[in-house]
Amino acid sequence: MLRLYFLISLLCLVKSDTDETCPSFTRLSFHSAVVGTGLNVRLMLYTQRNQTCAQLINSTALGNLNVTKKTTFVIHGFRPTGSPPVWMEELVQSLLNVQEMNVVVVDWNRGATTVIYTHASGKTKKVALILKEFIDQMLAKGASLDDIYMIGVSLGAHIAGFVGEMYAGKLGRITGLDPAGPLFNGKPPEDRLDPSDAQFVDVIHSDTDALGYKEPLGNIDFYPNGGLDQPGCPKTIFGGMKYFKCDHQMSVFLYIASLQNKCSISAYPCDSYRDYRDGKCVSCGIGHMVSCPLLGYYADNWKDYLLDKDPPMMKAFFDTAEKKPFCMYHYFVDIVSWNKNVRRGFITIKLRGEDGHITESRIDHEPSTFQKYHQVSLLARFNQDLDKVAEISLLFSTKSVVGPKYQLRVLRMKLRSLAHPDRPHLCRYDLVLKENVETIFQPILCAK
Ligand SMILES: *[C@@H]1O[C@H](CO)[C@@H](O)[C@H](O)[C@H]1NC(C)=O
Ligand SMILES: *[C@@H]1O[C@H](CO)[C@@H](O)[C@H](O)[C@H]1NC(C)=O
Ligand SMILES: *[C@@H]1O[C@H](CO)[C@@H](O)[C@H](O)[C@H]1NC(C)=O
Q: So which residues are the signal peptide here (predicted)?
């Protein structure tokens, strides 16, 4: 009898736990996506005091939204399956962890859920109007446009742009996370996100060859891994559903990582990804700025500098690791060779730290040309930052499978950290690298 009682109370507990006391993001089925959904915008407020339990608010009931604080709107994009975005909860929590603010999740899943993209994109201006109505009420209650920040993902980025345009660019900030490309590519500024939509607009482009927008849309446009294929994402359709959205979603995961402060991702202002890989864009000592632009939440550190530029726009490139926290550490490998003939080939460099950790960088985007007594500076990217390097391994390859094996005679190699120019430069003199044979050595401090 007692046991039965316990069982019943346990069931009640489970029941009350699933009772909808906390509103959650609209969850729809694939069936809804097939038949299509009418637009319904729900605004869900999260605050530091209510981090996990949302409060539904609207333009007539602002709830616990404190208008004197910063308000961040998070706007999702197209939902071809009806499911809630997988990243939403982590993004909200991470925002609340860095700063006390109101986070308003704009749930327009009814509207965004459809298998027909044009039906979703056709609703973006309507969503923007609803947000305008809401923000007008916030302003009436004493909020300031300066404190309004919108993070828009995919179609959501353009929605944020439309809202910003209605306020003539006076919104504090818009961050576009892989703004949608299809149907927006090539459109005039009023029909898409553009730098005049807020006081500061920063954009991450992670899928420019499919779902994302290729051209710059903000004051600063970040192109991780060149903006095309992201490491760790499936390269073929056999990767399943992930194949379609992995690159696109990477912009959101990179942004979230910037809030979690494990490491900061620096980006390098540059005209092209190729120039960045060639090591031509590694100095960020522009104007009064001493450190490179940071990706994500802290991108606005560069705001003043960027707004002074004419036009106030800049592209920045960087590479990421496959996994969180995604940071890569840049070094220069300077090589002076003394082969009689010009040698072209690729260098792979491995570092072993005093703590035993090993990290590797392949510099293989294009062959490097080694000429007698000329210094070649190669940009090497490692996914670990080894404070003390005990051993270096170099491998030279021409990548040709037939023909003779070559050697690269190295007069001097030098390794220097880009992020920590103060660290001692490591050198090695007089080496012969036999093609495809790893040469391991202990570096010494470079002669001054
Ligand atoms: C927390 O959320 C609940 C549910 O929406 C709401 O009733 C309550 O007022 C909120 N509390 C605070 C302190 O925001
Ligand atoms: C706004 O929210 C309040 C409180 O949740 C609700 O009573 C009211 O019906 C909502 N108004 C609109 C226009 O949805
Ligand atoms: C709103 O925020 C301000 C400053 O951040 C604070 O002083 C005030 O007490 C808050 N109001 C409420 C009702 O919590």
A: 1-18
